[in-house]
Amino acid sequence: MMKPSQDATQRPATDAVLVGGPDDLPEVARHASAGDETTIKVLHRGGYEHFEREEGPGGREAAGPPVYRWTMRTRIAE
To answer: InterPro entries from the entry (predicted)?
Structure first.
């Protein structure tokens, strides 16, 4: 999960693109910051949308921002 702040020992955050998930996920939420995170969770409609980092084209090995693809949704326990 992304952390709101990073200490000096962590790699600086990079822009990431989030692909897939619900159609009503705001466009601003589809551009996140991530360091070496393999997963990103986005709070949305009383739950979390989960995204995992892709490998290959558009992912870790390619030039440009890393791409995270939607994998599942979890609800917040009440």
So the answer is: DUF5988
